[in-house]
Specification:
9 strands; globular; single chain; binds S-adenosylmethionine; 265 residues; alpha/beta
């Protein structure tokens, strides 16, 4: 169940409280209705330590939780897509306790799981997974080394100011044409620390709209599928499947046909 969302005003108030008090992350506020509020741009550096502590302390509870049927459906659909295209090497980003990584591994994929939280990674390793402590904003893996990336409710913890760089990092880890599942709970475009969160300390979220996600995704990816999933609190989960664009590289068959048509070989 997603944590309670906060109002935009409360979210901004909390954002001001949780972000760095000064420095390049601040900018003046524009809209008239917020002219008395200092808008602070939150960065991953501001929230990473609290996120790590929140997840370090939640391993047993999260691992015992029953996975919702629609989440099982999302991973099954992604596995089917990978199977249909012959993809085998998968990176899970923000793997948590490793339930989805284990599923993909048992389905025959070659899986690497990464997570910010050392305790989550330890649980993944207990399950026999190749798991590493890693912030996806600073990946320590070779470029173009995966056919697929799976990120279920991880990138909603990455502030909007850092999301383009994180998406670029994920894109670089994928080989051209590789697939990326990006799923997250949605909202009205606000970001901040959740009210009444069941994790301690309360976690930062970026509650994005479908349009926001599409805009971010278009930079470097083709959108293979987008569909919203209604969730239990009346909210929505955004389910995106993306494909890494090919850098303008021309597939060999098309290149050969072009050269032939031009009379060269
Ligand atoms: C909501 S949990 C989801 C876990 C799992 N994907 C699932 O669906 O059960 C988010 C996970 O992302 C991890 N995470 C958050 N920010 C991250 C980052 N910048 N890099 C890597 N992992 C991150 C957290 O530690 C946490 O385990």
């Amino acid at each position: 169940m997603p944590p309670t969302r906060v109002s935009v005003a409360e979210s901004l108030r909390r954002t001001v409280l949780t972000a760095s008090p000064a420095g390049p992350h601040q900018r003046p506020t524009r809209p008239a209705d917020r002219r008395h509020t200092r808008r602070v741009i939150v960065r991953l550096d501001d929230v990473r330590d609290d996120l790590r502590r929140a997840y370090d302390g939640a391993v047993d509870r999260r691992d015992a939780a029953v996975k919702a049927p629609w989440k099982r459906g999302a991973r099954r659909a992604f596995r089917d897509r990978l199977g249909a295209e012959g993809h085998t090497r998968l990176l899970e980003v923000g793997a948590g306790t490793g339930q989805d990584s284990l599923y993909f591994q048992e389905q025959g994929l070659d899986v690497v799981a990464v997570d910010l939280s050392p305790s989550m990674v330890a649980r993944c390793r207990d399950k026999g997974l190749d798991a590493r402590v890693m912030d996806i904003a600073r990946p320590d893996l070779p470029p173009a080394s995966f056919d697929a990336v799976y990120a279920m409710n991880c990138l909603l913890h990455v502030p909007n100011a850092d999301l383009p760089a994180v998406l670029a990092a994920i894109r670089d880890l994928l080989r051209p044409g590789g697939l990326f599942y990006f799923g997250q709970y949605g909202g009205f475009g606000e970001e901040g620390v959740a009210d009444k969160d069941n994790h301690d300390p309360p976690r930062f979220f970026a509650w994005r709209t479908a349009e926001q996600l599409r805009r971010y995704a278009r930079d470097g990816f083709d959108i293979v599928d987008y569909h919203p999933v209604p969730v239990s609190d009346g909210g929505v989960f955004h389910s995106l499947t993306l494909r890494r664009q090919t850098d303008g590289l021309v597939p060999r068959a098309r290149l050969n046909a072009t050269l032939k048509a031009k009379g060269s070989s």
